[in-house]
Amino acid sequence: MYGKMILPTDGSEVAHAGVEEGLRAAKIFDIPVIAVYVITPSSYSQSHIGYEMEDMDFSAYEIIRNGLKKQGENVLKRIKKEADKLGVKLETKLVEGRPYKEITKLADKNDVIYISSHGRSGISSLFLGSTTDRVIKHTKATVAVVKPKNDE
User: Fold this and answer.
1) Residue 14 in domain
2) Which residue range(s) make up the domain with 79?
3) 36: β partners
4) Is the pTM for the entire model greater than 0.90?
5) Cβ contacts of 24 within 8 Å, gap of 6 or more
6) CATH number at residue 38
7) Which of 24, 54, 88, 146 could form a disulfide with 83 if both were Cys (CB 3.0 to 4.6 A apart)?
8) Is the Cβ–Cβ distance between 21 and 145 less than 8 Å?
9) What CA–CA distance (Å, rounded) separates 27 from 12?
10) How many CB atoms lie within 10 A of CB 123?
11) Is the pLDDT of residue 124 over 50?
C-alpha cells in the first residue's frame, strides 16, 4: 500500500502518540519506517536561551547544540527499541533544519507520514500544530494526523 512510513517526533509525549500509532500501523502494513527528530536552529536562539547567536562564543553554541543532539539521539533510541519489540524495520534520522521541510524531504507520494496533531508547543487541540499544518500543506505523501487520546 505504502512504500515507507515517516514518523516525526520532537520528543514530547504528545508527539509520541503519533509514533506509537504509526509503529502499530507499520507492523500491520508491513512497511519500513524512518523515525526523524529535527533540531531547529531556533532551538538555540535568543527566544530559548536569552542570547543572540552573535553574542555567544562558539563553545556555548556547541554545548547547546550537542545537548539538543543528545536529546534527539535518546528519543530515537527509545523509538528504535519500540520498533524492535514489534518487529518493525526502522531507520532513524537526526537532522537540523526547519521541521516541516526536513520531514517532507523524506517522503514521496507513495509514502505515509504519521504525525501528532501538535507537539511540544502544547497548542490547544482546537488547532493543528504549525509543523503538522505545514507538513500537510507541503507534502505529496498521505498524512495521518494522530490526536493523542489523553489530549485535553
Assistant:
1) yes
2) 5-146
3) 8, 93
4) no
5) 86
6) 3.40.50.620
7) 88
8) no
9) 23
10) 17
11) no
Grid coordinates belonging to 150: 489523553
Q: CA-based diameter of the chain, in Å?
A: 50
Higher pLDDT: 101 or 123? It is 101
Residue 83 CA to chain centroid, in angstroms?
A: 15
3-class DSSP assignment, residue 128: coil
Examine residue 151 and state whether it is found in any structural domain, yes or no.
Answer: no
**Is 152 part of any domain?**
no
Residue 15 counted as domain residue: yes
State pLDDT tens for residues 22-63. Answer: 999 999 999 999 999 999 876 555 444 455 555 555 677 788
Tell me the mean pLDDT in the region 127-142: 86
pLDDT at 128 over 80: no
The domain tally of the chain equals 1
In whole angstroms, give the CA distance from residue 44 to residue 71: 13
Q: Measured between alpha carbons, how far is 88 from 96 in angstroms, rounded to an integer?
A: 25
